[in-house]
């Protein structure tokens, strides 16, 4: 059987369209290709965005901001030395972009100006750290991307 160039073009189009349809159907139905929003409460977080910007600006106005360092025991978060530790309240949230199940939050409870996030809770890789804290009536926010 002889195929002319018009029939060959139609066959090529049908094969190409079949491949694209297979690809689209596979990507939309296979659970390993699920693409969810990064966080569940995306719109609630968006409404909180301006308050976060204000809290970050408050942090920049401090004499010294929150800092962190990686040690063998984990991550040590250091709060400003000129503040009284019993008036510091808040939480630390560690977010793992690659795996939602590894995210965790811990309350700030200080005995000195350092807070230790234990090594056993952290896997190697990229983390986003967010320290949301209050001192007296002022709110502060420290955000940083770290590689552990």
From TrEMBL:
One Pfam family per UniProt: FixH
InterPro entries membership: FixH
TM stretches of this protein: 6-25
Sorted UniProt keywords: Membrane, Transmembrane, Transmembrane helix
Name by which UniProt lists this protein: FixH protein
């Amino acid at each position: 059987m002889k195929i002319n160039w018009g029939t060959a073009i139609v066959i090529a189009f049908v094969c190409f369209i079949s491949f694209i349809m297979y690809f689209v159907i596979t990507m939309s139905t296979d659970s390993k290709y699920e693409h969810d929003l990064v966080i569940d409460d995306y719109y609630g977080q968006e409404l909180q965005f301006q308050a976060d910007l204000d809290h970050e600006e408050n942090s920049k106005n401090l004499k010294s901001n929150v800092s962190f360092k990686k040690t063998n025991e984990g991550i040590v978060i250091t709060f400003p030395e000129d503040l009284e530790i019993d008036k510091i309240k808040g939480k630390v949230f560690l977010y793992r972009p690659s795996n939602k199940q590894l995210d965790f939050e811990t309350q700030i409870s200080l005995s000195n100006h350092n807070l230790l996030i234990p090594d056993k809770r952290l896997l190697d890789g990229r983390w986003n750290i967010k320290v949301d804290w209050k001192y007296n009536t002022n709110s502060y926010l420290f955000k940083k991307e770290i590689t552990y």
